[in-house]
Amino acid sequence: FCSGAPTLARRTPRAGRWCSSFAAMAALGAGGGCSRARQLRRLAGICRHLEPAFAGMGLVPIRSSALSSSAGAPSAGFRAWIVDAHKGKLKHRAVTDFKDVSELPRQDPVANVTVRVHFSDLNYKDAMIIQGQHGLCKGFPIVPGIDFSGVVEQSDSPLWKVGDEVVLTGNKIGQHFDGGWSGKCRVQAEWLVPRPSNFSLEECMIIGTAGFTAMQMVVHLEDFGGMTPAGGHVLVTGAGGGVGSTAVALLAKLGYHVVASTGRVEELGDYLRSLGAAEVVGRLEGDGRKQPLQAQRWGYVVDTVGGPTLSAALAQTKHMGSVAAVGVAAGGILDTTVYPFVLRGIRLLGVDSTLPWSVEGFDESPAAWERNRAERLRLWERLARDMPSEALKKMHSATTPLEDIPTWGDKLLAGNVHGRVVVRI
Question: Measuring CA to CA, which of 122, 206, 360, 377 is 20 to 30 A from 393?
Fold first, then answer.
């Protein structure tokens, strides 16, 4: 491409400028002021702009193994969901056949491990993406699915070898890059963790991002919120969902008095008590802005709902209590005052279970990877220790094929699913 810049510049000035940028970036090398991962992503973007112009000159790019998993013997075909949308309006979605992972629409140019995906799952975020909702993805078209479990099929990294069973939750797959609703997924080696020996590949997806997030919330309340069984009752909002159900089971196993809050008390009461809830109550009431200091009811809160529910939970948390927040199902606006924080010392803990690394806009340093990987491994170790196997079975609502995902997604967004839905790839 660089050698073709002079000719191209004469024919297509804009493409010539892209060529000059490409050449300049290539000359920078590894010490050019940005990470190798970011450089390669920028160069790949320039390549995509240049390809049509060079095709007109009779030049065809040769793709390296960094951009394609097809180096070596050809691999078997597979199916994947493709969703395309523009400004929140769905344009196209379908299960599509592919021959090679490089054909997928939003590949990470620095990905170096190809995984044959066995299972994925359905999260609230996934259900929104398959409807084409705005603000969740870096761009469209894309393969959704923020989680997967499977077996390494090809690896250019010493971290993994062919045949390793691996799990990936978060790290922006299915949002920035193609995700797990595909027979194959190519990702960066550092994003993967080994399958915990206590769980099968399918059970890892019963847990998925939802269970991983629930465990993270519990750990953050322990580490940063001072949570102990002696500190009072623990409220779990949105308790019928995947995060909420897992939190109820984990907290009950750890000896806490769990109060499960749900808008479907009659329908889900027995289910939540079977997971370990000591009490099941309806949705929280009370205006957290007009009444920011209400009766002190909860020592700690796991909030998976957000909006007015989180506002009310803050107003009802006991002095020096802690609230871990992760949900936006009731809205992204927190309408409250500073009084719960300055008069009662309430600690509000935000949780981001994606733990992104080597993703544009986030820390790409080796230290960040070590920190995120250590947290991922710790959380999976805690899940292996603290997640009751019987509760995991009760939380498993269904395992669905790819074709039925839209139906389950609509049910999930309508609040008609409890526990977890696994996707068999």
Answer: 377
Cis peptide before 141 (omega within 30 of 0): yes
Q: What's the first-to-final CA gap in the chain, in angstroms?
A: 38
Q: Are strands 78-86 and 89-98 parallel, antiparallel or unpaired?
A: antiparallel
**What count of other Cβ atoms lies within 10 Å of the Cβ of residue 315?**
26
- Residue 137's CB is within 10 A of a number of other CB atoms, namely 23
Mapped onto helix, strand or coil, the DSSP state of residue 417 is coil
Q: Extract the tokens encoding 111.
A: 């990905």
Helices (H), 254-290: 265-275
Round to whole Å and give the CA distance between 211 and 350. 16
Tens-of-pLDDT digits for all 425 residues of the chain?
Answer: 444 444 444 444 434 444 444 444 444 443 444 555 555 555 555 554 455 544 554 444 443 333 333 333 445 799 999 999 999 999 999 999 999 999 999 999 999 999 999 999 999 999 999 999 999 999 999 999 999 999 999 999 999 999 999 999 999 999 999 999 999 999 999 999 999 999 999 999 999 999 999 999 999 999 999 999 999 999 999 999 999 999 999 999 999 999 999 999 999 999 999 999 999 999 998 788 899 999 999 999 999 999 999 999 999 999 999 999 998 888 899 999 999 999 999 999 999 999 999 998 999 999 999 999 999 999 999 999 999 999 999 999 999 999 999 999 999 999 899 999 999 99
> Residues 322, 347: contact at Cβ < 8 Å?
yes
Amino acid at site 228: T
3-state secondary structure of 298: strand
Q: What are the structure tokens assigned to 313, written together?
A: 């939970």
The CA angle 227-233-239, to the nearest 5 degrees, is: 100
pTM of the model: 0.83
CA distance 344 to 320: 6
259 within 8 A of 236, measured Cβ to Cβ = yes
Calpha distance 341→252 (Å, rounded): 27
